[in-house]
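Design request, tokens follow.
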């Protein structure tokens, strides 16, 4: 009798220990992927940790790696700036939802050229990355910038070295405005670049351009602001030259029908104020959860961000998701379930 009682005590203690470990483990959520939203997620995570004690460990490793990690279930959520089609998500047993909207911006390092002075259009930008326009004083660039003293210097193209949703947005845009780019290179998180050198992450490209004279690269706008980089104006689909800012990103997103599908691509959109290389960034989660407590905490974090994170997004020059869209997102979270078929959202 004593032996069985002692065994029962040990078993109870073991169960309690496992339960405690489960609670502790749920206090740290892991995610990986896009560098595009990394500044925003870092600030959201810091503020959320202060408010709740829950730690969000986000690895800024690029969209390609984020997709691979959520596919292999090594993280609680993946992040990508390249939305997955509804068909791909269904095949994988995953769902996605947008968290914010931003812009991919051409940045340059040319002595004497100030932010916003250089003007580019899609075909010229495509020809630069195709290697067809090799010098800054090329006639095509001088035609767009007749008053600028552009140097007789070789253009050093900088692009991403890793799988990148920022690259997807950039190459998707070039494929829409340059038939030659579409035929020879195409779009994707990684492409066979005709020219240039690679930097890892938005931060890597920003650093590369910052130290390389006569270079051009592309980064998410928050990296432009953080690093005080020289950006170019872009000609949009209406023919207007626009600078990157929150208003221009909002204009690009105005026509998105999020209630129809979260698969929305925002490049080369109509509207005189629209920034042509805009895009949303997305979270990927598996619908069937073998760690439901982790999934619940993940959704609690993003619910908190939608409710409390707009000011942070504004300060970092991301566009928060409209409130009407957030309702659709939170409803879609009902698709994420545990092994018994019970939704994990706010259990």
């Amino acid at each position: 009798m004593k032996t069985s009682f002692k065994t029962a005590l040990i078993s109870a203690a073991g169960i309690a220990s496992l339960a405690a470990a489960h609670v502790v483990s749920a206090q740290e959520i892991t995610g990986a992927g896009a560098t595009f939203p990394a500044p925003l997620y870092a600030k959201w995570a810091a503020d959320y940790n202060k408010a709740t004690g829950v730690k969000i460990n986000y690895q800024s490793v690029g969209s390609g790696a984020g997709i691979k990690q959520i596919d292999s279930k090594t993280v609680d959520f993946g992040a990508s700036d390249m939305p997955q089609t509804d068909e791909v998500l269904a095949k994988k047993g995953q769902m996605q939802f947008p968290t914010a909207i931003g812009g991919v911006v051409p940045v340059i390092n040319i002595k004497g050229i100030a932010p916003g002075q250089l003007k580019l259009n899609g075909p010229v930008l495509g020809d630069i990355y195709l290697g067809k326009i090799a010098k800054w004083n090329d006639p095509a660039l001088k035609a767009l910038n007749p008053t600028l003293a552009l140097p007789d210097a070789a253009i050093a193209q900088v692009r991403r070295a890793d799988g990148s949703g920022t690259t997807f947005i950039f190459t998707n845009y070039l494929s829409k405005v340059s038939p030659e780019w579409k035929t020879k290179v195409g779009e994707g998180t990684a492409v066979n670049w005709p020219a240039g050198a690679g930097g890892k992450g938005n931060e890597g490209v920003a650093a590369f351009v910052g130290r390389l004279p006569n270079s051009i690269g592309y980064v998410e706008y928050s990296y432009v602001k953080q690093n005080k980089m020289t950006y170019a104006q872009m000609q949009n689909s209406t023919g207007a030259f626009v600078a990157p800012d929150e208003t221009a990103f909002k204009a690009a997103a105005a026509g998105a029908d999020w209630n129809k599908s979260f698969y929305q691509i925002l490049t080369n959109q109509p509207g005189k104020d629209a920034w042509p290389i805009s895009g949303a960034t997305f979270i990927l989660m598996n619908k069937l959860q073998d760690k439901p407590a982790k999934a619940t905490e993940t959704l609690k974090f993003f619910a908190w961000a939608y409710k409390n994170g707009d000011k942070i997004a504004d300060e970092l020059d991301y566009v928060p998701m409209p409130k009407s869209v957030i309702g659709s997102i939170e409803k879609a979270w009902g698709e994420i379930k545990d092994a018994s078929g019970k939704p994990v959202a706010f259990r």
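Comment from the thread starter after seeing the answer: thanks! Residues 1-25 have pLDDT under 50 and may be disordered.
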